[in-house]
Amino acid sequence: MPELPEVEVSRLGLLPELAGRIITGAVTRTPKLRYPLPRNLGKRLTGARLANIRRRAKYLLFDIDHLSGDRTATLILHLGMSGSLRIVTPDTPPQIHDHVDIAFGDKVLRLRDPRRFGALLWHDNTTPIEDHPLINVLGVEPLEDLFDGAWLHGHLRKRSGPIKPVLMDSHMVVGIGNIYAAESLFLSGISPLRSAQKISAARCDTLADAVKQTLSAAVAAGGSSVRDYVHSDGGAGCFQLQCAVYERAGEPCLGCGKPVRKIRQAGRSTFYCPNCQK
Ligand SMILES: [Zn+2]
After folding, report:
1. pLDDT by residue (tens digit) across 117-134?
2. d(CA 35, CA 68)
3. Which domains does the chain have, with CATH numbers?
4. Cross-strand bridge partners of residue 61
5. CA 175 – ligand 1 centroid, Å
6. Which of 167, 174, 172, 247 has the alpha carbon at shortest distance from 207?
7. Could you tell me the pTM of the whole model?
8. Largest alpha-carbon pair distance within the chain?
9. In angstroms, what is the span from residue 259 Cα to ligand 1's centroid?
10. How many whole angstroms separate alpha carbon 66 and alpha carbon 150?
11. Which residues of the chain, if any, have pLDDT below 50?
12. CA of 241 to the centre of ligand 1 (A)
């Protein structure tokens, strides 16, 4: 499943190629993915301009302007379990799972999604995008300044249960998937089993820094490999990162050499070093 860093890498790869360009056509080849696709997408978009591509959690927000009547709109795109975006030339034949094309003259943005859990939604901007039901339930962005140790400490104090599932709660903070929760907790030396509300302010500083460092490193690692193929099919394992604990059960901890342990928490696998993480 594409995680936040993959989505951010996709955004960074698409921006210089497409931002500011006029849309010359659009095609949908299936009536729905997770939700029905916008109808008449080609008619709506042709002649409009892609002003910007923003990201909120794992949603890409395509800001569209110069629509007829000088209106604006936002296309909300989610890659679901298996979605990926590519930039291809207009003569590239679509493959079986290529469901949407948005054309920009000599470049076509193509959405591939074999499992069809992705989403592409039209928002007409008569209400703020922040109020959209898919967006207004999202917690703070981990790479933004608001998310820091003090913020985290204030929120963890109100939470019961072990830290790892709490850290992965997207209503609190978005984008800390299973890999990044495990790696951030290892980097900060905090056990995934530790009670969230008992983590000190100083350790929350360390944890918030570790989250930012882990996600930023993944974005940086992916960013160097992006060209015309905008990778986002994720797969198992780490996103171009060498993981310290994730998927390394039984292997020696990179810190102390003792075996990495795998447990289940809230239905997910957790990897950690009982010796280094307290
Ligand atoms: Zn260790």
Report:
1. 999 999 999 999 999 999
2. 25
3. 4-131 (3.20.190.10), 149-272 (1.10.8.50)
4. 54, 76
5. 25
6. 167
7. 0.91
8. 65
9. 7
10. 42
11. 224-237
12. 19
